[in-house]
Amino acid sequence: MQIHQTKTEFYKNVARFIELSVWILFILLIVLGIVLYNSYCHKNFGRYQIFMQDIDGIIVGSPVRMLGINVGYVKHIKPVNDMVYIDFVINKKGIEIPKGSKITVEFNGLGGSKSLEIYTPEEKYDSNMPSLTIQQPRRLGASAKLLYQMFKKIGDIIYRCTYFSQSLDLKKIETQKAIENTDKEFLKDAEKWIDKQLER
To answer: Global pTM?
Structure first.
């Protein structure tokens, strides 16, 4: 009876070992298939490396867009000295980045996510031109500063025009002389008076 029990346990243990081995082999085959598929895909995908001074919120996995279409993703980001190294993959089939294209960081979506945006060139470029031209991202703070400077200039122009118009004292031009003289003489007198005012 004991010999029969030990043989049964032995066969059960062997069956468990075989089952476990089959499962491990099955999992290994799946993992190997995924690795081989990824390596095959990466050989066929376009891979690009760029350096930027400011990535403005780009993270690993951020989309890469061209002509408004998602064509890839950011694979790796690493700071190098005062620049940021970005490695990105174009995984959409049939997409080639034309020579002379510009790449920059753009705001994408309502959630505030950022993407690398590729702008195709307006004109044809030589084969000697680089594939991608880096265009630094435009931050909101820089835009606000530019608007502030623009409105300040406009304010200065308005102030000078107002000051000039207030300094024109038309009472100093004799009204009777304007009535008696012809229009040309009146304009000459007005020009002389304006020149005198500007010389002060």
So the answer is: 0.49
